[in-house]
Amino acid sequence: MSNLAIEGVSKNYGSTRALNNVNVTFEAEKIYGLLGRNGAGKTTLLNIINNRIFADKGEITLGGAKAPENEEVQRKFYYTSEQMLFPKEMKVNKAIEWTAEFYPSFDKDYALHLASLFELPLKKKINSLSTGYKTIMKNILALSVNTPYVFLDEPVLGLDANHRELFYRLLIENYSNNPATYVISTHLIEEVANIIEEVVIIKKGEIIKQDSKENLLSEGYAVSGAASMVDSYIKGRKVIGVDNLGGLKSAYILGRPDNELEMGLELSSLDLQKLFIQLTNS
Amino acid sequence: MELSQNKPIFQQIAETLEDGILTGSFEEEGQIPSITEFSVMYKINPATANKGINLLVDQEILYKKRGVGMFVAKGASAIIKEKRQTQFYDAYISRLIKEAKKLNISSIDIIAMIERGYDNE
Amino acid sequence: MKKLLKYQLSTSWVTLLVFAVVYLGIMAFAGISVSFSEGNSTSQMNGTEMSVGILCFVIFVSNYGDNMRFAIQNGRSRRSIYTAALASAGLGSIMLSLYAQIIIFVSSLLLGSERISYTSMTELIYDSNHSVIGHFFKNFIFTTALLLVIAMFALVLAAAFARAGKYGRVAIAAGVPIALFIGFPTLSGIAVIKAPAFSEMCIRLLAKVMGVESGNPYIGSLTMIIAAAVMALIIYFINRRAEIKG
Questions:
Q1: DSSP string covering C141-156, please?
Q2: Model's pTM, two decimal places?
């Protein structure tokens, strides 16, 4: 399967710049975290990739073939977002049947199995489901469709803890048994941090980081200890943020740490959420 | 099993496997859980689990049986023990000494504590 | 595209079936009740295809938006959606027209008498030399063209609605009925009074292109088909850059 390349994509809504010259590549068979704050542009980008809205500028190609309005490409994608594009009066079991009809690789038995795992009522109309269950239904379809690219926009928003856990386990299992590219767009970073392999951070319509999670986290480190000691340590280093707790201080630094730290200073690795917060604070 | 923040996850996977081998939970020549099972269990990316397992394959602690899965090598216990004995100082002793110095505990006190511990535990 | 058509049919077959049964029922009931009643009153079942026209309009206008959104969810392009809409308008017009003509034909044949007459739109507009029984094909063509133009009009409205933003939708929802039922009649009323020569010319032009002047439904059918084609083009351009909004 080829790579999905987004090049120079911009989108304006009136005078608001939703996306500005976005360049990002999604490779085959990897789990991506598309991370960004509320309103950063994640959904806009996914909507453009999945042929729901049009970019003002730029190109989106899969192995060289243009993605917009191209069914051959779009059939390799499946996208679930907050928007409900299913007819409200449609019953859950019909939604499953029709998705199977439109996507030959859809595993209907698996979908029904997931429906019972999540306790999703099959005979109910979509509009009578709770918000959480509407999301669950869409997630089940996304997990059963077996397309090479699956885009999930905030897949666990509104789900209770049990269902969130179940979803992540199923996602990992699916990915492990049938590798595909999963792009998870979310602002709930802690939960997905261990699951994603690649990180794309979007801030105010621009991509500020695209790298493997491993590289990204090894880019920096955290030093904690007495505030005065930390202050003297960080002199001359590239600090991307600090936390203060009384006389204790933690500093988040880009670069590699010295081999030996002074007594009283503790070294720890960055965690993705902290790094994200530091990078995306205005 | 909880994952900590301070060590790369793949390393933690490798260490958990090693612990299991040492305690006999994973027998030599026996099969270990699949990558899928590991990743689902820990809720991590399969590539990470794979990395941890490959680390042990490189050290000849595990080996792969084509089409079947991953198995514990014969003599894996011995390899692990030897490795950890070499690493013991860095892994435990220097931290112990750092902490002791912070608390003004002398080396003589530590030796006494250790001897007491060996008697009791 | 076949799958889109299959889907579209699945969403409307119940409505179609119910209508088909009710239409048949009413036509039959009218004829049967007249033949059992006494007295000399007469009944007229004229131009009943108009109800089919309204059905056509309603189905297309109400399903387009949902069908388009569902198609996009399932990876289909706007182009596919467009061709499927045109195909269903075409096929739908033909099938509905055929059904209506058959019902009128059979009702007229079996139940028609001096006391109840069944006539078609064609007969109504042109003259009684175009009754269904003698001129089935002519009626069929005319009704098909009529339904097609109605369906296309419905699709223009639906496509415009899908493309429009918040305010655009209000403008369409309120504006179109006002324009059709208030604006147009008022303007033509004024025109007749204030500019009689102009209105006369317009009416004569309309009669000419609709073949009423020459009494030829085929001309009328052709005009309507051309109108449908123009609307098809309009729909294409509306649909092409429509964005899916929440």
A1: HHHHHHHHHHHHHHHH
A2: 0.89
Of C11, C70, C75, nearest to A77 by CB-CB distance is C75
* Contact with chain B for residue A176, Cβ under 8 A: yes
DSSP SS3 for C108: helix
Domains assigned to chain A = 4-212 (3.40.50.300), 219-280 (no CATH)
Determine the residue of chain B that is closest to A190 in CA distance: B5
* A278 neighbors A240 (Cβ within 8 angstroms): yes
Q: Which chains touch C (3 or more CB pairs under 8 A)?
A: A
CA distance A173 to A143: 10
ipTM of model over 0.85: yes
Task: Choose the most confident range, by mean pLDDT, from A179-183, B2-6, C26-30.
Answer: A179-183
Residue B45 and residue A172: Cβ atoms within 8 Å?
yes
Distance from C-alpha of C243 to C-alpha of C235, rounded to nearest angstrom? 14
Q: Which chain B residues are within 8 Å of A177, Cβ to Cβ?
A: 36
CB neighbour list of residue C64: distance below 8 Å, 6 or more residues apart: C85, C154, C155, C158, C159, C162
Across the interface, whether the CB atoms of A169 and B40 are under 8 A apart is answered yes
DSSP class of residue C104 equals H
| For range A156-184, the mean pLDDT | 95
Interface test with B, best of A143, A168, A172, A182 (most B CBs within 10 A): A172
CATH of B9-75, one of 1.10.10.10, 3.30.1360.120, 3.40.630.30, 1.20.1560.10: 1.10.10.10
Contacts of A38 (CB under 8 A, 6+ apart): A187
Render the burial of C159-184: b for 16+ CB within 10 Å, e for the rest: bbbbbbeeeeeeebeeebeeeeeeee
The alpha-carbon gap from B15 to the nearest alpha carbon of chain A, in Å, equals: 17
Mutation pick from B1, B11, B43, B95 vs chain A, by most beta carbons of A within 10 Å, is B43
Q: Which residues of A touch C7 (CB under 8 A)?
A: 98, 101
Please tell me if residue C66 touches chain A, with a CB cutoff of 8 Å. yes
> In this predicted model, what pLDDT tens digit does every residue of A216-235 receive, in sequence order?
988 888 899 999 889 988 88
Alpha-carbon span C151 to C160, nearest angstrom: 14
- The 10s digit of each residue's pLDDT in A11-66 is 999 899 999 999 999 999 999 999 999 899 999 999 999 999 999 999 999 999 99
Of the candidates A52, A54, A99, which has its C-beta nearest C241's C-beta? A54
Nearest-Cα distance to chain A for C75, in Å, is 5
Å from A73 to nearest chain C CA? 8
Residue ranges covered by each domain of chain B: 9-75, 77-120
Show me where the domains of chain C are located: 2-163+221-240
Structure letter (DSSP) for residue C179: I
Instruction: Show the CA angle centred on residue C141, arms to residues C139 and C143, nearest 5°.
Output: 65
